[in-house]
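A note from the maintainers: we've had questions about how concatenated examples are separated. There is no special marker in the raw files; a new sequence line simply starts the next protein. For clarity in this README we add a label.
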Amino acid sequence: MSDLICVGAIAGSFGVSGEVRLKSFCSEPTDIASYGPLRTEDGREFSITLTRPVSGGLGARLKGINTKEQADALRGTSLFVPRNRLPSLPDDEYYHADLIGLAAYDTGGALIGKVTAVYNHGAGDILEISPTGHKSALLLPFTMAIVPNVDLAAGRIVVDLPEESD
């Protein structure tokens, strides 16, 4: 799955004729339909056709899904696309999948830990770093001020940790 990027998930059924509620992780949500068939973790492929905006996502038809029961069974299924079908990004933008696993160093060159997840709850990306010297994970905003350097080729980021307050 390393060459696959998660671009969305099925949030459940919509209506009674097999339509699904699709949650798109693309910066432009409707772009999810332009990447060709989408794959699931278990290897199934679905051609999708967007139908309309719906509460919490997009209405979509998946080829071969014709009943509410079939659509319900797909709830929670992540949808992936091969990296080569995605557009190239500008120098200061990254796919979440590229950040996960990078080593995190402080501005003095000391290893902090490893990026284990990237979250976005609507206000910007948050990096979860599993630290080498701390008991709990660090959650840091993925901003230029906090993460001034991302070097994908070297597999590392530089983190300017905020000052601890007493």
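[label: protein 2]
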Amino acid sequence: MPDPSDLICVGVLSGAFGVQGEVRLKSFCAMPEDIAAYGPLYTADGSRQFQIKLTRDVAGGMSARVKGIETREEAEAMKGTELYAEKSRLPRLPDDEFYHADLIGLEVRDTQGALLGTVRAVHNHGAGDILEVAGPKALLLPFTMAVVPTVDLTAGRIVADPPDVAE
């Protein structure tokens, strides 16, 4: 069983496709079809393992066969299951790119060194990543070079230059 702290969410099962046990799969990978190469995939706690075989592109993602899922009812029961891969199986990223999981929990300081909080989540609603920072004031920061000029994973810190906001 893998260490849950070494798992990265790479997709989610979004329901059944057809009547023969295929599932709808939404991949979070840069190249959606790469999700099948990172297997086996796991639940967040690492307790369940899945072997995935992609079958075709469908609206909103792709369809896949999951070993052990044979009926539409079994596929529907899997709806909402997030799929995780071991980080060691994922590609190494360039220095200016980060997995969302690596950012969560990092301390965020402004350019003067004042603590703003810690990254609670990373959101993306289609226009780019947004860091949700939990601290004395809740902040949503666009994850751009202008607003977040420094990410230091080794030190566990982000330097941010948040825009001035009228209170």
